[in-house]
Automatic annotation (TrEMBL):
Keywords: Membrane, Transmembrane, Transmembrane helix. InterPro entries: Class_I_gatase-like (IPR029062), VWF_A (IPR002035), vWFA_dom_sf (IPR036465). It holds the Pfam family VWA. The chain crosses the membrane at residues 17-34, 54-74. PANTHER family: BLL2462 PROTEIN (PTHR37947). Residues 376-537 form the VWFA domain. This is von Willebrand factor A. SMART domains: VWA (SM00327). It comes from the Archaea.
Amino acid sequence: MTVSYTLAEGLTVGVEHLWPLVALPVAVGLLAYLVRRGEGGPRSASNRSRRLLLASRVLIVCLLVLGAMGPYTVQTRETPGEPGVTLLTDESASMGVYPNTTDELVQDIEGEGVPVTRATVGSGPNSRIGDGVVANLQENGTVVVVSDGRVTDGRSLSRAAEDAGALNATVHSVRPQSPRTEHAVAITGPSTVSRGVQSQYTVSMQGVSVLEPVPVEVTIDGETVTEGELRPDGTLTVDHTFEEIGSHRVTATLSGDDEYARNDVFYKSVRVVEQPDVLYVSQGQYPLRNYLDSLYNVSTASSVPADLDDYSAVVMQDTPSGNIGNATALQDFVINGGGLVVAGGDNAYENGGYETSQVASMLPVRVGNATGGESNIVILVDVSGSAESGLSIQKAVALDVLDQLGDENQVGVVAFNHNAYRVSEMQALGQNRAETEDKIRRLSSGGATDIAVGLQGADELLGDREGTIILLSDGQDRLGPPAAVANQLGREGTRVISVGVGKRVGVATMRQIAGESGGSYFAADETERLRLLFGGSSRRYQGENLTIVTEDTFITSGVELTANPGQANNVQVKPGADYQVATADGKPAITSWRFGLGRVVSITAYDSGNTMGGLLDRPDSLVVTKSVNYAVGDPMRTQTGVIAVGDARVGSPTTLTYQGENRPEAADISFRQVGDGRYRGEFTPREAGYQTTLDTEYAANYPVEYGAFGPSEALDALIEATGGQTFSPSQGEQIAREARQKSTRVRTVRENWDWVALLSALLLFTGEVVARRVQVYRGHTSLESGLP
């Protein structure tokens, strides 16, 4: 049994064993008997001499007992080390807009007596900054990165932060100021569009030291379609309708002088195909039919025919199960890659007998109570050191999340830092809500952040049950690989809904964790949307219009909803489906999922007369268009030849997908078969511009290195995660001071003192024996014991 006591800050004393104390009174009693035996006889020592001998022997026994107890001390000490700075210089193209300050910085640091080791982590079009940081990390060391943090290859800076945290290494950055103007243009938009359908392209500009708006010209097939001006991080939108089948060119060009000319032009190759063939199935005349006709090549039928080979998707509206037609053909069509959109109405879903029909298995919703049933939910709260300053906010958000959850749910709570702690077991929330709230309020913070450990702890609490983990964190993870754990959870049927909480949230990390598991990311002020998922009958959602439940999906990205259809079919979302949009009263309005190789969308919001209550009017109509486009999928999937070319960049490998009976042959492209009649090849463009391979035109643009300038948020996150600082090129003295302070280590030193007690006992015994022999030698006593 170990016993210890803290005497002062940084000093603890203790003993390893207490059992030797049992021998102390026995030994003292025996010594007293032996010393006093024969007292009063003619040859006995004086009482004073006997008392001194007894005291001496008792002290020796006490020292022997103390030595047997194993005394020790634990002390915290500062030990100076050898300071040093590893200076990592990024000499890639994106740093070409900054003056070279490395030599001057090295002189300033070494002038303070701190040696500098230099290394280059980027050159030309390659910025492997993450790899460079990791390769130069040392335990308790200091790394200074002279870079903008724009990683174009290799390990990410977030992974580098994990390795730095494991070694207790600090990463600082030097942020130079650019006196030179540099801007880069880019175009985003669809690469494959349908003839006659309006498409939208966004032209953007990114740069540094851009003081005035930069003129931009956008051409399509060589003809100017718009001219305007762009500011940094600004955009210009171009709407265009292509009327001719084939390849078309959309080009954006910036004017004005800057450091690099190669990134002032961006090329976008657009393939225009025939409008997808869509079958509209309904027994009524509804506005949706006319709306679809403006986007697709629509055929109409009152029921599903046996042959669906000519169609990319089937849109079925307000059709009872008895009138669907050939449901077997429809199921085979979807399983083999076709799309299905089922729009509701007075004769659909619960009103059309869908729950017992063959189509029920294909739908992402289940006919029945729209308020939802019981769900298994674990609230996972980050209580690590990175969340410490905002723990009160973490608790407030956790309590807010709890308030969104319906009484029917089974809810547990897990807190985590570098370990996971069960706060509340899985139990019905209704009768245990107050107890769960109290346990959340009692949470305290501290320790490193390991979201992966937290996710594993939440999964253990769920046990064999599938469920949902609601992660509340700032996403500043320094230790574990949370995305990999989230991916595994998703494969096992557990999704993660991440909620970003804190002053500085790693949104990218939190989104990735949610996405890997098939879940969603919410900001801290968006938790009310959890009522749409888990509110049940006791926590019903109430809004004014349609509400986006899952943001940034194919269906919901860029969508603005203002409509409020008066009705909705009574359904609930199936596990594994994507809940896209809800009605004003919290019922599912649009839900989607993959079924076999195909895609299925349920649109259950409607209005009297099946007008869909404003869903076909702008801006809401975009969500209908994207829902059908999602079901249609790849319009090229039934064609032969090159069906897709990835975004091509000079010097970077690009993927090309070919569909046909035989393996294609092309110069500098090696193909491998990835499916039945489908081949994938890889090639590397060497020049920017419009180029052709296998009779297909594609656009190759400037290297990624030339696309972004200025300090990156990822570098700022790395510095913050490792406790580093951001310096200017003139602060070499401060960098040296930080390195010297970092090299001074605080160590915990344990020392055992049993040898001191045993040596003292031996010295005392030896001294006593010598003293008594001296007494006899000098004639001060005639007793053999040497006692007077």
